[in-house]
Amino acid sequence: MNEKRPFTVNPLLHARQSFPTMIAVAVSEKLSDYLFDLPGHLVADRPRERREDSRMLVLDRCAGTLSHRLFKDFPSFLAAGDLLVLNDSRVIPARLHDDSGTVEMLLLERLGPCFWRAMVRPGRKMRRGVVVSTAGTTATVEDVEEDGTRRLRFAGEPDLDRHGAMPIPPYFRRPADEQDRHRYQTVYARDPGSVAAPTAGLHFTPGILSGIPHAFLTLHVGAGTFQPVKHEDLSRHGMHAEHFTLPEETAVRINAAKASGGRVIAVGTTTTRVLESRPPGLLSAETGSTDIFLRPPYRFHRVDALLTNFHLPGSTLLMLVSAMAGRERILDAYAEAVREEYRFFSYGDCMLIV
Predict the structure, then answer these.
(1) Which of 17, 41, 225, 258 has the fewest Cβ atoms surrounding its Cβ within 10 A?
(2) What is the Cα–Cα distance from 15 to 40, expressed in whole angstroms?
(3) Percent of the chain whose pLDDT exceeds 90
(4) CATH of 95-163 given 3.40.50.10860, 3.40.50.1480, 3.40.50.300, 2.40.10.240
(5) Are the CB atoms for 92 and 192 separated by under 8 Å?
């Protein structure tokens, strides 16, 4: 990777030689107001040797301060009565190739027994009715959807554990390997179904988590979470729905934490989206889906603090953290992270917003 090349992810983002001027506005519905310059060498394509050695930028909204810490310090920011909520979805090795090696399939969503929705490449080889051999079985293209994804009917369940590869992000610019099977997965992952890791949780070790009051929910992360925003007017962007499960035990513990004056600390944007998509009032067990798009001037009613990684320029995830801390403050924090050479994105460092 050319270390001096800016990292760009959107056609509306142009490389510049200096940081953009921060304009103090309360709310913006313009994509261009959520862009920032990121040198390419700050994109982490490998994890740190130890999960807990990630750096952690702490943004204190009340004090208006930034501090530089390590993730191993995270428990010191918790108080009695606080509850950590994490997404326990497990990443599946969802990237397949046909036996000829010329067709790539990324399984996005299980629609039924032996039936998946998938992204394919190249599309010209995967027209309706085409049959390919893959993962110890065959896949038939039953339909081509408007967004270009395919509905694939397998003759038998594809053997993902044996033939599938971890669906690491394309900005890693390398194929997945055995290290990714372990490290592109949280230590508490249980319920298989995600095609991208809930990356804020990658920093936890069993030891750190065991000393913190915590509860789990499940949201299976789909490719839609990371779909680029293509319109300058954010109101025109549609979020893809993702499936979640909120267990009764978790709902009860969140209700109790709120009633006692404790904070609900969400680990990651996926956890945040589930909790904030539920209507005000007491939580109860629920299974459903959410397509909530959190951005300024949204006011959070369940999540009091957030642990999250550093996100792509112009992404809906950057807009979510901007809703929590303010766009100008987040962009200032990101500029500080760039100056201090924090590592960005999935295998990168993290930010705690309190």
Answers:
(1) 17
(2) 11
(3) 87
(4) 2.40.10.240
(5) yes
